[in-house]
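Justification of computing resources. Each target in the renewal requires a structure prediction run like the one illustrated here; the chain below, 104 residues long, is used simply to show the kind of job we budget for.
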Amino acid sequence: MGVNVRIPGPLRKVTNGEPQVELEAANVQETIDLLESRFPGIKERLCDESGDLRYFVNVYLNGEDVRFLQGLQTATKAGDELSIVPAVAGDKKAFAFAALHHGL
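Resulting structure tokens:
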């Protein structure tokens, strides 16, 4: 049993329709890197050029926002649930532009 990663609908075109994926990873960064190796192109939709999470992408580990934990270095273990959630608050036009531009 690994980390159960929940994929939002807009990213399922990259994951061939898979709504969730189980991966063996030590932290959130490694989880994203493993997602990228399995589904090329997903990382650029989650992370910016410097490797940080994009401002309109939220990642929750067992219901806790990783930005308030140890960020991408937040440790993961078997049985954890990692949810990728596109932000929906704020200006709808700005979000729609960002989502289209980054493939969410």
